[in-house]
Write a structure and sequence with these properties.
The protein is mainly α. It contains 7 helices and 2 strands. The protein has a two-stranded antiparallel ribbon.
């Protein structure tokens, strides 16, 4: 992980430097964990589970970015920063990129194209992010 990359994004205005608090970090992690648990409820619609897993991934990814002292208004950029905030491989966040595209189609065009396999992969990815975020520990 490298803060140089995050600092470079801040210097060009893509990220904002902002001190975070333990309660904000904890709240994002708790929100992500609750949504992730709900996404695993198979009685819910596939679309609902996708939405819950996507938003869990975002909350947890944002927690990682906030832990490092940065904020972004762009959901996509929060995911793109995962190699710098949690040491994730680019291939891992590309799944989130695909899900972001599908989410945008649903939000802005009313068409959600997801299948069970994608939702299961997204849930698994959210769990990986959650474990890495929780390993960050207390703010210093």
């Amino acid at each position: 992980m490298t803060s140089n990359n995050l600092e470079n994004l801040a210097s060009i205005g893509k990220l904002k430097r902002e001190r975070t608090s333990q309660s904000e970090f904890d709240g994002l992690v708790q929100s992500g964990r609750r949504r992730l648990a709900d996404a695993r409820v198979t009685n819910l619609s596939l679309e609902g589970r996708f939405d819950l897993a996507y938003n869990a991934s975002h909350a947890l990814s944002l927690a990682a970015l906030r832990w490092h002292g940065y904020r972004s208004d762009s959901r996509y950029l929060v995911f793109q920063c995962l190699p710098f905030t949690l040491g994730m491989e680019p291939a891992q966040w590309r799944l989130l990129s695909l899900c972001h595209e599908r989410r945008n189609l649903a939000e802005y065009e009313g068409h959600l194209d997801v299948e069970e396999k994608l939702v299961a992969e997204l849930i698994d990815m959210a769990e990986v992010i959650a474990e890495k975020v929780e390993a960050l520990g207390e703010l210093t």
